[in-house]
Structures are given as C-alpha cells and as structure tokens.
Design a protein that fits this description.
This protein is 26% helix and 21% strand. It is α/β, with parallel strands linked by helices and 286 residues long. The chain has one domain: Metallo-beta-lactamase, Chain A. It is globular and about 50 Å long. The termini are far apart. The model has no long low-confidence stretch (mean pLDDT 96). Belongs to the metallo-beta-lactamase superfamily. This is Beta-lactamase-like protein. GO terms for molecular function: hydrolase activity; metal ion binding. Its cofactor is Zn(2+).
C-alpha cells in the first residue's frame, strides 16, 4: 500500500492581522493584547486544515480541527476576550472531523492514530468525535495543557474534550532527522515522523511524511503560511517568539537538505501546493 496525504478542511477562521503576524521583539503579553484589543481588522477566511495520511499500518489523522459548536462563539468561554474578540469561526456540521471521516468511509476506530500538533481550539476541538481513537500528543505539550483552566487561558477549548481525556504521550526517542537531533516515532517504518517545533506553544509538534509522490511537512501552527516562514516572521500570539523563529530556520534548513512540500494548517495555498506537489524552495537563512 502506498503512502499519501490529503486535506480534510474543518471550516474556516478569520483572525486579526496582528494575530497572524507581529514583531518578535515585543513582549508576549503586549503582542497578545494588541491582537485582542488593539486590532479591529480581519484577515480573509483562512482554512482550518487537518491532514489524513494513508499508510500501510493504517490511516493517520494529523490534527482534529475545529468543532461546529465554536461557530459564532457558541460554546466558547464568554469571559475570555481571545475567544470573543480575536477569532471568527465558521464550521458547518458537515465540516466536523467526524463527518469528514465518514465521507471517506472511515470511523475513529479505523485510524491507526490521531497526532495533534497542539491543543489550541482550532487544532484540538475534534476529540469529542474521536473518543475511540488513539490520540497522540507530545509529553511537553500535555504537561503544559493538562490543567483545563490553564489550557483555556492559553487558547484551548477543553469543554470539547471527552470526559477523562488523556492522550497517549509521545517522547523524543526517535533518531535524528535533518536539523532535529531527536524525533517522535509514529510509524514503524519511519515514513511518518514527528519533529519538535515549540515556540507557538510549548511542545508544539509537526509531522514529516515520506510519501510516494513527495515528502510533506505538516506544520500545524509553526507558521501561518509559507511566505511568512521564508521571511522568518512569526505569528503574533505565540508563547516564545525567538524560539518560534528558531523553528522556522530549522524548517528552512531541512528544506535545503530534502525537497519538501510545506503544508501549514491555515495557509490558503496549502491545498494547491498539495495537489501540484509544489516543493518549497527556501531563501537563505537570515
């Protein structure tokens, strides 16, 4: 059986331009305050992409996307200014991850694993549709997000997680890959590998897929689009902007070593690049 990647888009999200990008030199709280309170503009609707990996060991889902319950702020904390002022979510019932899998004639039990880049609401709101699936999260990330109030403050929506939710925790026990000294093993044959990409949040994880047609870098929120990555410009609400820049440089270094198709979660051009297997050709490191 071949290895391939396809997109399951769980609706769209609009964010503030200063959420999408700000100077890395400002303190974290000031950047977040500007995105929430100081910017009244919106980006275009951005995709909320999850990725389905077909693999001989069984299908693997990368990220779980957004819940339809989050549309129009329904079900999101009324007291949290980030959820009420910084995001505009549009997810139809037929765009929920469970419905999208059903359209592929897949059930949660059919999945070998669900790998979650991080538990922010638009990446980790699907576990209620996947309660019988094996969900994998980096140990460092879960250590930061396991307390539900803290997770909510940091942009997760644990009210959408199943009762007693506790994912399987991945350790950095795999061999080096490019600039990453250690990796997260996901498949036995090494064709699907997790790499640590912290900065957006602690313990953020990306996935590299060595498929038949190309190598794919599934980036979650390590960047919001390929152009920002190439310019080494981070998002505006990350927890550690300088660590985030370090990850962008590692990805560029990897792309210089290995032809790779870059697929962030919210890049409007990701679907086109995937269809055409457009390889990312990075500029020189800054």
């Amino acid at each position: 059986m071949s290895v391939s990647v396809s997109i399951l888009q769980t609706g769209t999200i609009r964010i503030r331009p200063s959420h999408r990008h700000q100077s890395a030199n400002k303190p974290v709280l000031l950047r977040r305050a500007k995105a929430i309170f100081g910017d009244r503009r919106w980006t275009q609707p951005l995709p909320i992409n999850t990725y389905l990996i077909e693999h001989p060991e069984g299908p693997i889902l990368f990220d779980t996307g957004e819940s339809p319950k989050a549309s129009d702020h329904r079900g999101l904390p009324w007291w949290h200014p980030f959820f009420q002022m910084d995001v505009d979510i549009n997810v139809k019932p037929e765009e929920a991850i469970g419905a999208l899998l059903k359209q592929r004639n897949l059930s949660p039990e059919d999945l070998q694993a669900v790998v979650v880049s991080h538990l922010h609401h638009d990446h980790g709101d699907g576990p209620e549709d996947l309660s019988r699936a094996r969900i994998l999260v980096a140990q460092e990330h879960w250590d930061f997000y396991r307390k539900r109030f803290r997770a909510t403050i940091e942009g997760a929506a644990p009210q959408y997680w199943p009762d007693h939710f506790h994912p399987e925790l991945l350790q950095l026990s795999g061999p080096a890959l490019g600039p990453w000294e250690k990796t997260y093993p996901i498949t036995k044959d090494g064709r699907v590998v997790g790499v640590p990409t912290p900065g957006h949040v602690p313990g953020h994880m990306s996935v590299v897929v060595f498929a038949d047609e190309a190598a794919y870098f599934l980036g979650g929120d390590v960047t919001y689009d390929q152009r920002l990555l190439d310019m080494e410009e981070t998002d505006g609400v990350n927890s550690n902007s300088h660590l985030a820049i370090e990850q962008l440089r590692k990805i560029k270094t990897f792309a210089m070593q290995k032809p790779v198709v870059l697929l962030p979660a919210h890049d409007p051009n990701a679907a086109k690049r995937l269809v055409n297997n457009e390889v990312y050709r990075p500029s020189s490191l800054k």
